[in-house]
Design brief:
It contains nine helices and no strands. The chain has about 200 residues and is an all-alpha fold. It has one domain. α6 packs across α9 and α8 crosses α9. The N terminus is likely disordered.
Length: about 200
C-alpha cells in the first residue's frame, strides 16, 4: 500500500523523472487492473486484452514524460484512457487490414471507437475509475471486519434485498444489520478517499 507521503502526483513526478524502478512497479500494481477494465469496456475479447494491456503499459512508459499534471485541465486517468483508446484503435486497425473478409467484428469495434468523443472518454474513465477504486478499497479493508460484517455488507451490495431479509438470513436483529452496514460503509468511504488522494483526482 502506498504511504501518505507517496501521493499519485508524486508517483507520476517520479515516473516522469524515471527516478526508480519501484515507481514503475507501483504504477503497474495500482493501474494495470484499471487499464484492463477500460480495454474490456471497448468490447475487446479477453485474449486480445492481455496483449493490449502490455502495449498500453509500454506506451505509458514511453510517453509519461509528456503528460502535464493539472487535474483541472486533464486528469491523469482521462489522459490514460485516451492512450488506451488509441492503442486499441491501432491494434484493431492492424487486425482488420490483415484480412478484411474475416475481420468484420474488428471493423465494427473500430467504427464504434471512432465515434467516441473526448467527453465520452472522460465519462468512461470516471465510471470505471469509481468502480475500480471502490472494489480496491473493499479488498484493502475487508480483513478488518468480522465474517458476519463482511457477509452482511456483501449481501447488501450484491443482492436487491431489504434489511429485514438480511436480518432473517443471518439471524440477527434488523437494527444490527443497519449498524454493520453503516460501519463498513464509513470505512469503505474513508479508504476510497485515501486511494483517490494517492492514485486519482
Amino acid at each position: 500500500m502506498l504511504d501518505n507521503q507517496n501521493t499519485r502526483h508524486t508517483l507520476l513526478q517520479k515516473l516522469q523523472k524515471a527516478e526508480t524502478e519501484d515507481c514503475w512497479d507501483d504504477f503497474v500494481k495500482y493501474y494495470e487492473g484499471y487499464i484492463y477494465v477500460v480495454i474490456r469496456n471497448f468490447n475487446i475479447k479477453a485474449e486480445d486484452s492481455e496483449e493490449l494491456l502490455q502495449d498500453v503499459l509500454v506506451k505509458v512508459w514511453k510517453n509519461i514524460s509528456s503528460y502535464d499534471y493539472d487535474k483541472d485541465k486533464c486528469r491523469f486517468r482521462t489522459w490514460l484512457c485516451v492512450v488506451i483508446r488509441n492503442t486499441v484503435y491501432n491494434f484493431l486497425g492492424k487486425k482488420s487490414s490483415r484480412n478484411s473478409k474475416q475481420n468484420v467484428c474488428y471493423d465494427d469495434v473500430l467504427e464504434k471507437l471512432n465515434l467516441i468523443s473526448d467527453s465520452e472518454i472522460d465519462k468512461i474513465s470516471e465510471r470505471e475509475w469509481q468502480n475500480y477504486v471502490a472494489n480496491m478499497a473493499w479488498e484493502n479493508i475487508k480483513g478488518d471486519f468480522s465474517e458476519l460484517s463482511r457477509n452482511i455488507f456483501e449481501t447488501a451490495m450484491d443482492e436487491d434485498i431489504s434489511n429485514v431479509e438480511i436480518a432473517q438470513k443471518y439471524d440477527v436483529a434488523e437494527s444490527s444489520v443497519r449498524v454493520y452496514k453503516m460501519r463498513v460503509r464509513k470505512a469503505v468511504y474513508k479508504e476510497i478517499v485515501r486511494l483517490n488522494n494517492e492514485l486519482g483526482g
